[in-house]
Amino acid sequence: MRQQIAAANWKMNLTYVEGQQLLKDIFDENIETKDNQEVIFGIPFPYLMMANEKVNTLKNFYVAAQNCSNKKSGAYTGEVSVDMLKSIDIKYCIIGHSERREYFNESNLDISEKVDLLLGAGMKPIFCCGEPLSIRDAGTQNEYVEKQLQESLFHVSAEELKNVVIAYEPIWAIGTGKTATTSQAQEMHAFIRSAIAKQYGQEVADAVSILYGGSVKAGNAKELFACPDVDGGLVGGASLVAVDFVEIIKALK
After folding, report:
1. Which residue(s) pair with 94 in the sheet?
2. Domain range enclosing 17
3. Among residues 187, 189, 193, 234, which one has the fewest Cβ atoms lying within 10 Å of its Cβ?
4. Which residues make up the binding site for substrate (predicted)?
5. Is the pLDDT reported for residue 178 higher than 90?
6. Is 87 annotated as a binding residue?
7. How far is 220 from 226, CA to CA, in rounded Å?
8. For residue 175, is pLDDT > 80?
9. Can you tell me the distance from the alpha carbon of 44 to that of 113, in angstroms, rounded to the nearest whole number?
10. Is 65 helix (H, G, I), strand (E, B) or coil?
11. How far is 112 from 116, CA to CA, in rounded Å?
12. What residues act catalytically?
């Protein structure tokens, strides 16, 4: 079975002390993960080392950076390089998040460069893709997402792709009042897997974990994760509430 993953994205939330308390509250539940399950915490840069020290003793728990630079090093004040993250033993990094694309104008080329740097350093990208409301309303979401995959990800080898986690974000269903149904989530996940199969073959497609990133909550996680092509979630707001995120972890297949 593919890895089933509950990935928290704290975004720009929590103070250092609040972050420590949230992790403590989650770990105090003594969650036992199966071999095919992983829990990943996407932590703000200042807290990465603290969080990594706490998860290092736990089976199948990891820390992710929320972003990285598309430059290897140099005069890029305020940026954080892949080598910096590697040097503090961070295993995962979220890239291409819809907020990075929308608010910081990150292009498919920028994200492609991040993919290469992360894989070159032996780190695992959590590659985000997904369409805005205008694209969904036009009915061209498949073409839009496939272009993101083609321009940012599908240049890597089949072996490299097996070290990538894909997260599908229906941007139109986040903060718009519209809601993505379970069937819509499964439909797009199945399309993404078919696009991988077309490019790399079915064996590779069956090995890649695809997470759902559209307002996953404790109340809908089990239904979403039961979909055959949904391998867990990239969780925003609900990951900031210990009892909710614990329920989401328990909902994994």
Report:
1. 126
2. 4-250
3. 187
4. 9-11, 175, 215, 236-237
5. no
6. no
7. 10
8. no
9. 21
10. strand
11. 6
12. 97, 169
Structure tokens, 129? 């893709």
| Residue 216 contacts residue 189 (beta carbons within 8 Å) | no
Q: What number of other Cβ atoms are within 10 A of residue 73's Cβ?
A: 11
SS3 64: strand
Is 175 annotated to bind a ligand? Reply is yes
3-state secondary structure of 61: strand
Dig out the tokens for 45 from the structure.
């840069």
Q: Are strands 37-43 and 61-65 parallel, antiparallel or unpaired?
A: parallel
How many whole angstroms separate alpha carbon 52 and alpha carbon 46? Answer: 12
> Would you say residue 129 has pLDDT above 90?
yes
pTM exceeds 0.70 for this model: yes
State the chain's mean pLDDT as an integer.
96
Q: Which residue has the tokens 């707001």?
A: 237
| Exposed / middle / buried, residue 216 (Cβ in 10 Å: 0-12, 13-18, 19+) | buried
The rounded distance, in Å, linking the Cα atoms of 94 and 7 is 10
Residues composing the chain: 253
Give the pLDDT score at 198. Answer: 97
DSSP tag of 33 = P
The rounded distance, in Å, linking the Cα atoms of 200 and 189 is: 16
Does the annotation place 157 within a ligand binding site?
A: no
